[in-house]
Structures are given as C-alpha cells and as structure tokens.
Design a protein that fits this description.
By secondary structure, the protein is of the alpha/beta class. 41% of the residues lie in helices and 19% in strands. It is built from 14 helices and 14 strands. The strands form 4 sheets. The protein has a 7-stranded parallel sheet, sandwiched between helices. The chain has a 3-stranded antiparallel sheet with strand order 7-6-8. A two-stranded antiparallel ribbon has the order 3-4. The model has no long low-confidence stretch (mean pLDDT 96). The structure holds guanosine-5'-diphosphate and calcium ion.
C-alpha cells in the first residue's frame, strides 16, 4: 500500500510513528512543511523536516518533541558569551551539525529535496521525506505593532511562535508561495497514492502552507485515493500549541468541524474527530459532505497513536469500497 501524508513538525511526526506501526509494510511518502524554515547564524534551518527526520530516525528528544536527544549547547553558550543573539532560539550542538551539512550542500547547488534525502540516509528513515517545495516559502504573520507604519507589521513565523508566543494575528502570509513549484516527486506521490492522510498537524501554518504551493491542493483534490484527515482540535482547543491563534487569523472557528469545513469537501473525503469531546460534530461534518467518524484522538501512547492511524486507514478503506461500487 502506498500512503502519502502531508505533515508539519511535532504533531505530524508523532502521528507518522503511529502510521508506520499500523502498516509497517506500507510505502510511505511524507510531504513536509518548509514554511517554518529560516536562516540563522548563516545556517539554513528546516524545523519541520528535521522534527520528522529525528522522530522517525530515532534521534528526537522525546520529552520535548523536537531537537536532538542527549543534546549539548556548547555553541549556544559561546554565542551568548559573545553577546550574539537571538536568545529566543537556541540551537544544540548536534542539531547544528545537521544545519551545517544542509547549508553546505545548498551552497554547493543541491536542491533542498536532494539535501533532505542525503540527511535522511544517515537516519535510515522508514519513509520517503520530501519537502513540499525546493524554493523558499516562508510563513509570515501580520500582528499589531503600535510603532510600525499603519500600526501593523509582519514577522517570521518562528519569531511569532517561539519568541512572541502567538499573540493575536490579522493574517498569515506564505511569502514566495505564488511562484513556488512542488518539489520533485511531490505531485506523483499524491497522484499515485492509495491513501492520502492529513495528520493532526496545524491546519493553517503546517498543512495549509503545503497546500498553498501551486498545484498541491489541486493534486490532492484530484487524486484517485481517498483523503482522510484527523482533527488537531479536540474539545474546542488545540491539544498542544497555539493553533487557535492562527485559525482565528484566517477566520476559522476553533472546532473540529470548522477545521474540516476549512479544508473543504473538495479536498477531504473523510475526517476523524475525538470520540470523547467531539462526537456531536459528526453530523455537522457529514452535512458538509465529508464522511466523519468519532474515535479516540489523543496521542497519549504509541498504541493510542497507532490506533488513530488505523482508524484513518479504516475510514479510507471504507471510502474506497464505496467509490468502487
Ligand atoms: P505540526 O503542525 O505538525 O508542526 O505540529 P505541532 O506540534 O505544532 O502541533 C500541531 C497540532 O497538532 C496542534 O494543533 C495540536 O492541537 C495537534 N496535536 C498535538 N497532539 C495531538 C494529539 O494527541 N491529538 C490530536 N488530535 N491533535 C494533536
Ligand atoms: Ca511547524
């Protein structure tokens, strides 16, 4: 079975572990978000791609959900001693090695997709990880700033999220998205999949940013495979993180049903909501033309996460059988 998943960072990566556990024999392609990428100290950093790579490769800091296990911070301490910031984004020594390899390869002219493949070789990744695009697409967030002209300014997503802890926002802009092209293999992985999964990643700044690369949303909508998503919103709030702030910025209510409707029946065939908190949302989602099931949706253990992935595949199988008759 060929499964293609669109994924952000921590939430996406944890879910992918469950997907691999559910179908160890599947050929899984992960299309990763690059909207969080940035350059710091001259190093190109791809937080979401690295979180997927470290998580599935066995190098992740489990408690934190991002960054390397058994990390040291010698470089960060030296930078601090020099008074060189920013102080809100710390890079670990092991992590820096990843960024050095990436930056060096990009400088030598390799596209991000080739660099990502090279990095993943070391981790013997059980999936194929593709960046959504080889071009630069950066998520910027428009926030209030009394000192800026017009009273607003746009900040890079990392600054908005990590330094500012997601204040109220007016708009989310994917800078560079209009002219970007899907990375090699992305459209084929969507067209040739047996199942397409949207993990419970951030629907705006992770999966939304992937879908904004011209051609990707259309390819998912046109795919022969059923498209099944899992709600990142449980009981009217994000399970972790600040997804409520970016949903508000794009005018979407913070409910499991509203996120499904935001993706839309044109894109989504099936949607999973949490059985304990959101069973009442099933009728609303189905009324919008999306098949919906209520199952436990908390990734509280590897087994719970595997069961979530299995539920998504079960719904996909049901939808495929329906189209086949
Ligand atoms: P990313 O979008 O994949 O980069 O990852 P984040 O860690 O930023 O989380 C994205 C979303 O995952 C958030 O909106 C969370 O609500 C959601 N999420 C995290 N853990 C769980 C979980 O156990 N269950 C569900 N349903 N969603 C989760
Ligand atoms: Ca992210």
């Amino acid at each position: 079975m060929r499964i293609t998943a669109l994924a952000g960072g921590v939430g996406g990566a944890r879910f992918l572990r469950g997907l691999i556990a559910a179908v160890p024999s599947a050929e899984i392609t992960v299309i990763g978000n690059v909207g969080d990428d940035m350059t710091m100290h001259g190093l190109r950093i791809c937080p979401d791609l690295d979180t997927v790579m470290y998580t599935l490769g066995g190098g992740i800091h489990e408690g934190q959900g991002w960054g390397r296990a058994e990390e040291t911070f010698g470089v960060a301490e030296e930078l601090k001693a020099y008074g060189v910031g920013p102080d809100w984004f710390t890079l670990g020594d092991k992590d820096i090695a990843t960024h050095l390899v990436r930056t060096q390869m990009l400088g030598a002219g390799y596209p991000l997709s080739a660099v990502t493949e090279a990095l993943c070789t070391r981790w013997k990744l059980p999936v194929r990880l593709l960046p959504s695009t080889d071009e630069r697409v950066e998520t910027h967030v428009v926030i209030d700033d009394a000192e800026a002209a017009g009273g607003r300014r746009a900040v890079h997503f990392q600054e908005y999220w990590v330094r500012m802890h997601a204040p109220d926002a007016h708009a989310i802009v994917s800078v560079g998205a209009e002219t970007a092209k899907p990375a090699p293999g992305v459209l084929a992985a969507i067209a040739e999949a047996d199942v397409i999964v949207l993990p419970p990643s951030n629907p705006v700044v992770s999966i939304g940013t992937i879908l904004e690369i011209p051609g990707i949303r259309q390819a998912v909508a046109d795919a022969a495979a059923p498209v099944v998503g899992l709600s990142p919103i449980v009981g009217g709030g994000p399970v972790r993180g600040m997804a409520d702030k970016v949903l508000a910025a794009v005018g979407v209510a913070v409910t499991a049903a509203a996120v499904a409707e935001h993706y839309g029946a044109n894109l989504l065939d099936g949607w999973l909501v949490d059985a304990d908190a959101d069973g009442g949302a099933v009728a609303e989602v189905e009324a919008a033309g999306i098949a919906c099931r209520a199952v436990p949706l908390l990734m509280s253990s590897p087994e719970a996460t595997r069961a979530m992935a299995q539920a998504a595949l079960d719904l996909a199988a049901e939808l495929s059988a329906r189209t086949a008759v």
